[in-house]
Amino acid sequence: MLLSIINHELPGAELVCEVTNRYWVDKMESRYMQWKFKRQLGMKGGAVFTFGVPNGSYFEEWSENYHFLDEWTYFDDNEKKLGLLNLFS
């Protein structure tokens, strides 16, 4: 609904958003991940993520007016604090 309103009210606009892959949303249900969110991110009260996308161009399936332009991941910057995780880039 929100994307439809933006498309209608601001034709030609580009939307930048952060999304999570469905795989990781499913993993967030584990006790370990809940503990990590609470400890490392200060998330309290059982915050739940329920929406994830399979790939960057997923929203194009919603309307012929949506066109995927580009995607970026945290691994693209070779961030020092990610340490060995940068091997996944």
Task: Explain how this protein is built.
It is a single chain. By secondary structure, this protein is an all-alpha fold. Helix content is 28%, strand content 0%. The protein folds into two domains: 21-52, no CATH class; 54-89, no CATH class. The chain has helices at 2-9, 22-27, 31-41. It is extended, with a radius of gyration of 16 Å.
Q: What fraction of residues sit in β-strands?
A: under 5%
Stretches with pLDDT under 50, minimum 5 residues = none
Class computed from helices, strands and strand pairing: mainly alpha
Task: Note the overall shape.
Answer: extended
Question: What is the strand tally?
Answer: 0
CA radius of gyration:
16 Å
Helix content: 25-40%
C-alpha end-to-end distance? 33 Å
The secondary-structure element order is HHH
Number of domains: 2
Mean pLDDT: 80
Main beta sheet: strand number and arrangement? none
Count of helices? 3
Q: Which short descriptors sum up this protein?
A:
89 residues, mainly alpha, 0% strand, extended
Question: Could you outline the blueprint of secondary structure elements for this entry?
Answer:
Blueprint: H1 2-9, H2 22-27, H3 31-41
Short characterization:
It contains three helices and no strands.
